[in-house]
Each structure stands twice: as C-alpha cells, then as structure tokens.
Amino acid sequence: MPATANEPLARLRVVVAKPGLDGHDRGAKVVARALRDAGMEVIYTGLHQTPEQIVATALAEDADAIGLSVLSGAHLTLFARVLDLLAAHDASDIVVFGGGIIPSADREALTALGVGEVFTPGASMADIVTWVRAHVGLSREL
C-alpha cells in the first residue's frame, strides 16, 4: 500500500564508495556526511574497494543508490564494472552517481554508460543532495 501524506517515507539508502587504489577519501566522506545530514542512510565502504565489494554491499544493504568517488583516473573502468555487476545481479534500478577528477569528455562517456550524474570539485553539497533526492526518489515505503 502506498504511503499517505501522514505516513513517513522510508529513508533513501546510499552506498558511498572509494573504488580502486586511490587513497584520498576526504571528498567521499564530506558527501557521505552531507547525505546523512539530509536524512539519508549512508553506508560508507572505506578505501580500496573493488567493484565486486561495492555491489555486494549495495545488494546486502538494499541500497537505492551508489555514489563513487574516483581520483585515480580509472573512472571509466571502475564505473563500467559497477554498472555491469549491477546488471548481472538484476539490480540496474540502483542509481549510480559519482564524482572526482573526471574530464568533461569522460563525464559524457560515463553518462552514456548509465551513470546518473558526475559531480566535480566545487560542486555544492546542496546540489548533490538535491540531485540525489530528485533522481533516486523519496517514494520508498517504510
């Protein structure tokens, strides 16, 4: 039964992850905190996660979205692998977004792969929260 105006909606569940070998996670932690402060449930996986570990976490946590932070230059490979694994697990409904040092041409390629949005340095936390709410949705029931 759908939620009514008097019933609370379930909180969005977002996995924030640092795939690959890049060892800088300040941005990922800032985004994780902003999403948490906006009322979302955030599962931060920590550094050096493989795409397989990230997708396994998202599935185990019943995540609505995965936010990836990549600074190492391996963004095309890492995002593509996460999307492929989600498809293989029939979980393509999990929205993937991310950020990092990603050239504009590569942002277009990521969008073509199915990445919902790519935020670059300087993106405001308010913009990220607004995008997640608008594109992941607030309609999950408790």
Mean pLDDT: 90
| Radius of gyration, in angstroms, nearest whole number | 14 Å
Order of SSEs: EHEHEHEHEH
Uncertain stretches: 1-8, 138-142
**Cα distance, first to last residue?**
11 Å
Strand content: 15-25%
H/I helix tally? 5
Considering DSSP H and I runs of 4 or more, what fraction of the residues is helical?
40-55%
Find the count of extended strands (DSSP E, 2+ residues).
Answer: 5
Specify the structural class.
Answer: alpha/beta
Shape estimate:
globular
The biggest beta sheet, please?
Answer: 5 strands, parallel
**Spatial arrangement of strands, main beta sheet:** 2-1-3-4-5
Could you explain the architecture of this structure?
Residues 1-8 and 138-142 have low confidence and may be disordered. The chain has helices at residues 26-37, 51-60, 75-88, 104-113, 125-136; strands at 13-17, 41-44, 65-70, 95-100, 118-119. The protein is built from five helices and five strands.
Q: Helices and strands in order, then pairings?
A:
Elements: E1 13-17, H1 26-37, E2 41-44, H2 51-60, E3 65-70, H3 75-88, E4 95-100, H4 104-113, E5 118-119, H5 125-136
Parallel strand pairs: 1-2, 1-3, 3-4, 4-5
Helix pairs in contact: 1-5, 2-3, 3-4
In short:
This protein has 142 residues and is an alpha/beta fold.
What labels would you give this structure?
5 helices, alpha/beta, disordered N terminus, 41% helix, disordered C terminus, 5-stranded parallel β-sheet, globular, 142 residues
